[in-house]
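Justification of computing resources. Each target in the renewal requires a structure prediction run like the one illustrated here; the chain below, 330 residues long, is used simply to show the kind of job we budget for.
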Amino acid sequence: MMKIGELASLLETLCPMFVLLDETGRIRQVGPTLQKLRPDQPMEGTGFLELFDLIRPRAVTTFPALMATAGGKLHLKFRDEPRTALKGLIAPLPGCGGAVINLSFGISILDAVRDYALTSADFSGTDLAIELLYLVEAKSAAMEASRSLNLRLQGAMLAAEEQAYTDTLTGLKNRRAMDHILGHLIQTKSRFSLMNLDLDFFKSVNDRLGHAAGDYVLQQAAKIMLEETRGDDTVARVGGDEFVIIFKGLLDSGKLRSIADRLIDKLGKPMSFEGAACSISASIGTALSTQFDAPTAAGMLHAADLALYAAKRDGRSCHRLYCALSHAQQ
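Resulting structure tokens:
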């Protein structure tokens, strides 16, 4: 007949969550995984029903009644916190009056693995829990990989979209972006002003000093325009030396004139490129959305163009505001 010590050693290998009971219902020994759930609370010598609360069958309150359930399933919880739910099966030990109860986590296994930092070494090698843990880990890894891929794809899409709406030389918005923003403002019936700005004498810089100097001038001009506008304004390069600035919600002609004057002043100062002076100026025309009963993108751009041409006719390096009667005024 197998001795109790030999039986306990065998159970540790096959059933790491076993409970070995004596004839009075007190715990002789428990499996290493079960003890891991209460590392600071030795279980040996404790009455099984003092440690665990039987949920089903609920009528069981004594060890003899527990023994009478042999072969049936037990549903129980620890009496102290955390009250981890367990399942069990009791088998009497012939000849000694004791019993072996094999416990498992059932559907609470994921919570138990999280709460007690269990690993595959805490389960029997044939336990289906191992496969479940591997499946959960694989699913978690797959979901993380999918999330990472989605983030990369979203980032790539955003980068591509940003590139599609950006002028590569200056970093400003391009014509496509301007058309999109202008269309949205008109569709939502927002109030805004549109400023058309041309760099005067830019061609002479290109002809005299080369395209590298011209690119430098465009980049510096873009920097100035960004400095003189608000964060939610739109500054777009729509042609070689043509720019459009959209001021959302700004319709004060005095403030617009002040912005235009500062732009003209700063853009009129010579820019030094490799020791050579690059001299340009700026002509600006502005139209307000409130000047039209039903503004359109084409109508707003045309009105700002008329005001810009008036500025050029008046000697360049100046600003004109569109007027429906005379086309443009100071």
